[in-house]
Every structure is written in C-alpha cells, then in structure tokens.
Amino acid sequence: MSLYDFPCEYCEGMVRERTLDREPISHHRGIVVLENVPIGVCEHCGAHYYAAAVLKRVEAILTSTTPASRTLQVPVEVY
Ligand SMILES: [Zn+2]
Questions:
Q1: How far is the CA of 61 from the centre of ligand 1 (A)?
Q2: Any residues with CB less than 8 A from the CB of 64 and at least 6 apart, and which?
Q3: Whole-prediction pTM value?
Q4: What pLDDT score was predicted for residue 62?
Q5: Per-residue pLDDT for 78 more than 90?
Q6: 3 C-alpha to ligand 1 centroid (Å)
Q7: Where are the domains of the chain?
Q8: Are 33 and 68 in contact (CB under 8 A)?
Q9: How far is the CA of 29 from the centre of ligand 1 (A)?
Q10: Are 40 and 17 spatial neighbours (Cβ–Cβ below 8 Å)?
C-alpha cells in the first residue's frame, strides 16, 4: 500500500509514489536533500507531495537529532 495515491490538490490528476534519486525538500528550518526518497508526484501536473514520515526525517536532520551523512554547498544568486 502506498503512502500516496490521492487526488492532486492543484489539478484533476492522481498523486503516485515515485522514488527519486535526489530531492531537495524545503522545511521552515531550511532545506535538506534526500536521496532515494519515495515521494508523491502528480501524474498530470507534476506537483510534489511529501508524506509526514519524510518531513519528520527532514526535521530530524535540520535539528541534528539524526545528523546528515554529508553536506552539499549550494550556490545562491538573485535572479
Ligand atoms: Zn496535479
């Protein structure tokens, strides 16, 4: 049984589980890149959805409860 498989909030599509190699996930504390992570992707508009367990993992990393195995440097620029 999938954590996802529900109607998209933004269109008429259905959200399906997909495991992504690398997904940057924003949280109010910051951004974490999770690798090999199962997320929900709308098959029509492509919107991404994150299950509560995934967001808990992101929060645990950002609060150093379970520190990340490595850190990336990300360039930032005003467009
Ligand atoms: Zn959609």
A1: 29
A2: none
A3: 0.85
A4: 94
A5: yes
A6: 16
A7: 6-62
A8: no
A9: 26
A10: yes
Centroid of ligand 1 to alpha carbon of 4 (angstroms): 13
Ligand 1 centre and the CA of 73: distance in Å?
Answer: 31
Instruction: Using alpha carbons, list the distances in angstroms from residue 21 to 31, 56, 64.
Output: 16, 19, 23
Query: How far away, in angstroms, is 7 Cα from ligand 1 center?
Result: 8
pLDDT tens track for 14-51: 999 999 999 999 988 899 999 999 999 999 999 999 99
Per-residue 3-state assignment (H helix, E strand, C coil) for 15-77: EEEEEEEEEEEEECCEEEEEEEEEEEEECCCCCEECCHHHHHHHHHHHCCCCCCCCCCCCCCC
Q: Say if domain 6-62 classifies as CATH 3.40.50.300.
A: no
DSSP label at residue 65: S
Query: Ligand 1 mean position to 12 CA, how many Å?
Result: 6
CA–CA separation, 66 and 4 (whole Å): 25
